Amino acid sequence: MGESSFDAAEEARKVQHHPEFALVQNSNRNRLTPKLRQRYEIVRLFVKQQSISEVAKKKGVDRKTVRKWITRFLAQGIAGLADKPRTGRHSSIDEGLRQKIMETLAAPVPESYGLKTWQAKALANHLGLPYHPLLRYLKKGRH
């Protein structure tokens, strides 16, 4: 199903006249995450280009992705550009474990490990924690 230039132009006008478009237009790009920055830019470019295909090509994303962010912006405003909460398991690392991890990272690695600094696998084994949840925790930099 192709998009006619009239439909795209009309949709671009709707985006441009959305009550929150000025916020997207004038946002401080340095304070946005890379994902949000890209989504804001998709909305801005769509108003200028009035073509989903051109925006997709310029941003290096699929046309469906551009359509998704335009549709969500029109329906929900800026809130629609944010990630939706994901389902799945919650972290197995609670506050008590976070404290234990911090204390362990602050202490020297036992000589028997033969390491100068902690490595994720050694830390997981030392604390008796599953490796992957600990690795995700460390990568997110919450410590």
Structural description of this entry:
The structure is a single chain. The protein is mainly alpha-helical. It folds into two domains: 5-81, no CATH class; 95-140. It is 59% helix and 0% strand. The protein has eight helices and no strands. The chain has helices at residues 5-16, 21-25, 34-49, 52-59, 63-76, 95-106, 120-127, 131-140. Helix 3 crosses helix 5 (63-76). The radius of gyration is 23 Å and the shape is elongated.
Q: What can be said about the biggest beta sheet?
A: none
Number of strands: 0
Write down the Rg.
Answer: 23 Å
Number of domains: 2
SSE order: HHHHHHHH
User: End-to-end distance, in Å?
Assistant: 49 Å
> Helical region count?
8
What is the percent of helical residues? 55-70%
Describe the global form: elongated
**Sheet/helix structural class:** mainly alpha
Strand fraction band? under 5%
On the 0-100 scale, what is the average pLDDT? 87
Low-confidence stretches: none
Topology readout:
Elements lengths: L4 H12 L4 H5 L8 H16 L2 H8 L3 H14 L18 H12 L13 H8 L3 H10 L3
Helix pairs in contact: 1-3, 3-4, 3-5, 4-5, 7-8
Task: Record keyword descriptors for this entry.
single chain; 143 residues; mainly alpha; 2 domains
Summary, kept brief:
The chain has 143 residues and is an all-alpha fold. It is 59% helix and 0% strand. It contains 8 helices and no strands.
